[in-house]
Amino acid sequence: MTRSHFSIILLPTLGCNADCEYCFENKTDRHLTLDHLAVLIDKVMDFLERKHIGRLSIYWQGGEVMTLPPEWFEQADIIIRRSAEARKKEVVNYLQSNMIGYSVKWNRLISEMFGNSVGSSMDFPNLHRRFKGGAPHQFETLWVQNVREAREAGIKISVIAIPNKKTLQMGAERFYSHFADDLRITEFQVNTPFPGGSSNRVKDGYPLDAERLGRFLTDLATIWIDRGFGKGVHVGPFDRLMEYFVHGHKNLLCIWRDNCVNDFICIDPQGYVSQCDCWAASYPTFRFGNILGRDSLCNILEKNEARRQLQERPGVLIQREDCIECRYLGICHGGCPVRAHTMQGNLNRKDPYCSVYLALFDRMKELAGMANGQSGPFPLRSVSVGKNQLYSNERR
Amino acid sequence: MTMEDGMNAITYNIPASLIADFGERKRIVRAHDPAEIVENLADEDLEGISFIKLLSLNGKLDSLMGWRNAIPIELVVSDTHRDLPLLYRYTPLLTDHPIRVLVPLVPGFGNVVKLAVSLNFAVKLEGGQPDESLLDEMQRIALFYLHQPLVAEPIDFFHSLFLAFYHRTSITLWTIQEEDSSLVRYITDEGEETMPGRFAGMKVNENFSTFMLEIQQGPVGEKGKCAGCEFLMHCQGYFKWPRREYRCDGVKTLMHTLRSAAEELRTDIASFHSPGEGGRT
């Protein structure tokens, strides 16, 4: 058995109980049947065997996952466990939900199938997350109430937040205080917005101003280092960048890996395979194939032209863009393909938030040096690499 | 040392098709097609293999992806422009195999080095007598290796030479570059035993040691051009082949850069460890 690992973003439904203005998914009422899930999982297991991959992570997302009943997931869990045990594979499930449909009846399932942990989403200020025909504050009130109840039941809630223009105006201090102090959320992450899917007034405002977004993120990182780092508060992507700059661990967000194509795929309720949830419901021409059809997953992934284009993207960027000159090439590789495709109409362009990332990387490198107890970014004045390698050699 | 001991100390760089002929000796196995290596190597052959060497970067990787062992892989770049984007294909193999990229010292080699280290591949530079324009690029990459904090992989020969300066050990460039014929031999596709590295395929008359002897008595010798050179201990005439009249000034500047950095680091670490200055003990 190799040490390899693979992930699936599994969308059992594209139905949703919310109507967020910036959502990139085209909603449908279709959901994955348990019969189809069994076929899908068997084909994924075939793929893992063929590629000698031992571990699988399944990220359950939607649509909104909690529009399906917990009983559906209990059956799904049995199907997956049986298949994994038969193939001697390890499977770990993760749950992403807007928590609007949460009630105590989910508690047992969340504990047994999802390690008593849920990833959710909320913005500050919340301008765009809402029910159909409702106001954002109504949505937020119910979210806060459900999150509180879940946490009282011992469920760990992490949050993804998408900044908007108002977020940037209000500043990093209020943003951090809202999540860490007011809501007592100890794990949250900031993602950059992009206008995926059909256009509307909100999406027309994307991308956010790069300079202001960069300043917001660097301010937020500084506040986190001061108030949360090492004190039980984890803020992404800063925490992983800190791990990298201090310890060299490259466990970075998907947008900054050398090629996301190597690490995961997304499967929608109809069995369509695509790169991630950002592509799945918005860009059907970028589907790789259908796992419920006759083809094996290996064939789908090896023969599809859209996947080949995605696979070749980092190599193309190295030749066409200025990434080869970048001091952060090793932790970015041109950034996110769906952001490039959506905002520049061309997959083979670098991520339009390039300057934001650069500002953030510079600041994190600086903060890592200071958090390390040094006056400058790195402990030795100039020969930093020699020092790192020397120490690692001496440890061997 | 007996002749048999000597043979056992030598690593043979062999084509995959000759695996069976080299039994239990230490081997580097090379092929253009990864499948050829996997097909030719039985589990019992794996013992004694230092690494496998892929001579082309555009072969199908399926066979290697499912290969259940952790043998290191060397990727040979032959065209720095054409092969540059192909490096991305090999990152999934890092889960199970250490990977090193062999980069020829030709114009544009620096981009390959930068991408390789950004993908967590080690690098070995190959080539012996760089011209003026190449020396500028080598100096830039040496500074990149020394001072770019995000470089976490060795770039040889810079790295081993830097460590030799730092530890004040006497390893030579011939050994670092795996071109010491007492340690490595190249076996041609026809099965002929020849010199390694830059000299692969070069026939040696009677004894491999005569080649090194020629160097000892030539430029490196007492009255040779290398006599008195401050880097003689580590270089041993490495840059005087194949053209003895090659001027080493640029190479010496490069080695000086590495040595100065190593000395600076020694000083820094000494102060880092010294008690009474807040240093760690």
Give a quick summary of the entry.
The complex is a heterodimer of chains A (396) and B (281). Chain A is of the alpha/beta class.
Biggest sheet record of chain B: 9 strands, mixed
- The low-pLDDT segments of chain B are 277-281
Q: What is the mean pLDDT of chain B? A: 88
Count, helices of chain B: 11
**Secondary-structure-derived class of chain A:** alpha/beta
Strand content of chain A: 5-15%
Which value, in Å, is the CA radius of gyration of chain B? 20 Å
Side-by-side strand order of the widest sheet of chain A = 3-2-1-8-9-10
Overall 3D geometry of chain B? globular
> What is the total tally of β strands of chain B?
9
**Residue share in β-strands of chain B:** 5-15%
Compute the number of strand runs of chain A.
10
Main sheet attributes: strand count, strand direction, barrel closure of chain A: 6 strands, mixed
Series of H and E elements of chain B: HEEHEHEHEHEHEHHEEHHH
N-to-C CA distance of chain B: 43 Å
Oligomer: heterodimer
Largest interface: A-B, 42 and 39 residues
Low-confidence stretches of chain A: 375-396
Helix/strand/pairing class of chain B, anyone? alpha/beta
Q: What letter string, H or E per element, gives the SSE order of chain A? A: EHEHEHEHEHHEHEHEEHEHHHHH
What labels would you give this structure?
heterodimer; A: alpha/beta; six-stranded mixed β-sheet; four-stranded parallel β-sheet; 10 strands; 43% helix; disordered C terminus; B: 281 residues; alpha/beta; 9 strands
Please describe what this structure looks like:
The complex is a heterodimer of chains A (396) and B (281). With 396 residues, chain A is an alpha/beta fold. Helix content of chain A is 43%, strand content 11%. Chain B has one domain. Chain B contains 11 helices and 9 strands. In chain B, strand 2, helix 2 (34-40) and strand 3 form a beta-alpha-beta unit. In chain B, helix 5 runs parallel beside helix 6 (132-147), helix 6 (132-147) runs parallel beside helix 11 (249-273) and helix 7 crosses helix 11 (249-273). Chain A binds chain B through residues 1-5, 50-52, 248, 250, 258-259, 262, 312, 314-316, 318-319, 324, 327-331, 333, 365, 377-390, 393, and chain B through 65-66, 68, 84-88, 91-92, 95-96, 111, 114-115, 117-120, 145-152, 154, 159, 162-163, 166, 261-262, 264-265, 268-269, 272.
